[in-house]
Each structure stands twice: as C-alpha cells, then as structure tokens.
Amino acid sequence: MVDVRKLLEYNENVRHRYFETLTRLSWEEFTENREASFHSIRNIFVHTLSAVDYWLDFLQNVNLRSKRKYDEYGTFHEVRAYMEHVEKRTHEYMDSLNKEGLDKTYRGKDDAGKISEVTAEDILIHVFEEEVHHRGELIALLWQMNIEPPPMGWKNL
C-alpha cells in the first residue's frame, strides 16, 4: 500500500517540475483567462496551493492560510514564495504526525452539506487528489499552447 507521505512527496516533486515549466511562459500567458476552472494557469496553480493551505488549517485547527486573491500574485517570485510557504507548512505538519495522527478523526460537511467523519489520512489523500485533478487541467492547457508538459510518472515511470 502506498503511504500518503509518499503521495505528497510525489506531488511536491511534480509541482516543482510544473512550476519550472510555467515560469517559461510570459506573464501574460500565465495569467490569461483560458475559460478553465479558475480561469488562468496562475489561478489554477495558486488554487492547488491554497487548497493544501486550507486543509492544513482544518487539520491543525488554526487560521494561518493565505487570504490573498489570485490576482494579488503579481510575479512568478510571489507564486514561488507561496509555494515554498505551503510546502514548509506541509513538511512541518507531516513531520509532527505519527500513525495515530493519521488515524485521528474529524467531522465536517461534505459537498452536499452532509456531516461526515473522516481521518487525517483521508483528508491528505483528498489533498493529493485535488492537485492531481488540476494538474490534468494544466496539462490540457499546455497542450493547447503546443507546450509539452513535464514528465510526471510515479517514480519516473
């Protein structure tokens, strides 16, 4: 069985490859409204980071996530700084987590508004899946621009 830690490490490694590819775009290409889920490539990328940030707040019962709006990220440097901030938070949380911590249960509302009970591990798998979902969007948008996305296979497959 795959450890959720390894899934999150994989996402981080692939995220870096994608970010490096995205920084080769012009700022205009990066921020152009492409009629995707969050409109621009920048917004989609920042959304994936803000989702991690949100769920870390939920798991830790804190309110530390960024409240910046997508268009308040005006440079690649600012997006990279946010990415590094989220990754630091993730590492600190994961380093503090033992097996019992992964099994800790939380109550929250699902998308339909129904109260459900999930574990920390469930939430972290959701965080992994959310980023993979939006990475598929980024792949499609890069293909539309005739840009080959970076490799993303598990263990470089």
Written account of the structure:
It is globular, with a radius of gyration of 16 Å. It starts with a helix and ends in a 13-residue tail after the last helix. A two-stranded antiparallel sheet has the order 1-2. Helix 3 (41-60) runs parallel beside helix 4 (76-96). It has helices at 4-22, 27-31, 41-60, 76-96, 99-103, 120-144; strands at 105-109, 115-119. The chain has one domain (4-156): Four Helix Bundle (Hemerythrin (Met), subunit A), CATH 1.20.120. With 157 residues, it is mainly α.
Secondary-structure topology with pairs:
Blueprint: H1 4-22, H2 27-31, H3 41-60, H4 76-96, H5 99-103, E1 105-109, E2 115-119, H6 120-144
Antiparallel strand pairs: 1-2
